[in-house]
Design goal:
Largest sheet: 8 strands, antiparallel
Number of strands: 10
Shape: globular
Order of helices and strands: EEEEEEHHEEEE
Strand content: 25-35%
Distance between the termini: 24 Å
Structural class: mainly beta
Helix content: under 10%
Radius of gyration: 15 Å
Oligomer: single chain
Number of helices: 2
Length: 153
């Protein structure tokens, strides 16, 4: 079983099938294509998005439904295709897709925002993801209400 040494979470054992593949990388990090999604019981519902390639690179995320229970995921045809779906399909969040907003924490931990306009969208069955620009009126800097619960990774 491979072991990933990380800056923030120590050594993590994982199975190769647990790797989330993001073929185009994340915005600003096109070379980062393989990640592990880490959920720590003490930090739920936060999700740590740990790079397999770079031990110091870890993003913090929240499922979009935690931030906005009424969130509507409308993917562009090219994003649907990248995930393996027909251009007119709209897979169901929570059933076929996991949708995670990537968080930004201010330097002094005074503010936290979620990118609701370009979440990480994961095909659950294929363990493949994209950072998608969703159709709709969502902000890339949605201010989170419960900032005191967030801890930067």
């Amino acid at each position: 079983m491979p072991i990933l040494k990380t800056k923030f979470h120590g050594a993590i054992q994982y199975e190769p099938h647990q790797i989330l593949r993001i073929p185009d990388g994340l915005f600003g990090f096109p070379e980062e294509k393989d990640f592990l999604l880490l959920e720590l019981p003490s930090s739920r519902p936060l999700v740590f998005i740990q790079s397999v390639r770079s031990q110091k690179l870890c993003f913090l995320g929240l499922p979009v439904q935690v931030i906005d229970p009424g969130y509507k995921l409308l993917l562009r045809p090219e994003d649907l295709f990248a995930l393996g779906y027909a251009a007119k399909a709209q897979p169901v969040m929570g059933k076929e897709l996991l949708c995670i907003a990537i968080l930004t924490i201010g330097e002094q931990h005074e503010t936290a925002t979620a990118n609701m306009a370009a979440p990480l969208v994961i095909d659950i069955a294929g363990h493949r993801g994209i950072q998608a620009i969703v159709m709709g009126h969502y902000s890339p800097r949605h201010i989170l209400a419960q900032q005191e619960a967030l801890v930067a990774c």
